[in-house]
Design brief:
about 220 residues, alpha/beta, Rossmann fold, five-stranded mixed sheet, 8 helices, about 15% strand
Length: about 220
């Protein structure tokens, strides 16, 4: 119907898990993303949230705003969110050896992993914030490839939900860090540790992955 309907969903991940497994929408993001013409926006911080609201108001169709209730850092220069995805952080060069792609509350995890890979391991790294797949896919191929270079073999996704579907951006040989199950009920920091979504746990997985793909 092309109605401008805006859904605000605040239980965006397993990190509300202290309320039990019913508060762990691990599959909902992907389920919503497959609905034709639905825009699903999962912003990483306050600035991206403001831009997400603007995107929703300007779109003649339904939008889901998937918002975190956790404390997250605020980043500068988020205007690229209006294109669905953009390079949030980059160190080293001339091209990235590792591209880490995140959404929502996991973007700061990707940034911390990238910092460690650069400062401790000397790797050229890039972090892509990808708040809205649908808007990103609507961009021209040149822009999409400038953000996520298809020739960069080491691509990693980090999202507190099912990993199914992320191969679109990581490739079949990429690393997909997420949650492919239900059941745990605990405070958010405990769940992050259990599911490997802390910077330290994610860094260890990325390092192991890089040993395999670059050996």
């Amino acid at each position: 119907m092309s109605a401008r309907v805006i859904y605000v969903m605040t239980h965006d991940s397993i990190f509300l898990g202290e309320d039990g497994p019913t508060h762990q929408p691990v599959e909902h993001l992907m389920a919503l993303r497959v609905i034709p013409r639905m825009r699903v926006i999962r912003p990483a911080d306050a600035n991206e949230t403001a831009l997400a609201w603007r995107m929703a108001l300007e779109y003649q169709g339904p939008t889901v705003l998937s918002l975190t209730r956790q404390n997250v850092p605020t980043y500068d220069k988020n205007e690229g969110a209006l294109r669905g995805g953009y390079v949030l952080y980059e160190r080293g060069g001339p091209g990235p050896q590792v591209v880490l792609i995140g959404t929502g509350s996991e973007v700061h995890v990707a940034v911390e992993v990238a910092k460690a890979l650069n400062e401790q391991d000397g790797r050229a790294v890039r972090v892509v914030s990808l708040p809205c797949w649908e808007v990103f896919e609507a961009q021209d191929a040149a822009y999409r490839e400038s953000v996520i270079p298809p020739r960069t073999g080491a691509r990693v996704s980090i999202e507190a939900g099912v990993t199914f579907g992320w191969e679109r951006y990581t490739g079949e040989l990429g690393l997909r860090i997420g949650v492919d199950g239900f059941g745990a009920s605990a405070p958010a920091p405990t769940l992050a540790e259990h599911y490997g979504l802390t910077p330290a746990k994610a860094l260890a997985r990325v390092r192991d992955y890089l040993k395999l793909v670059q050996s």
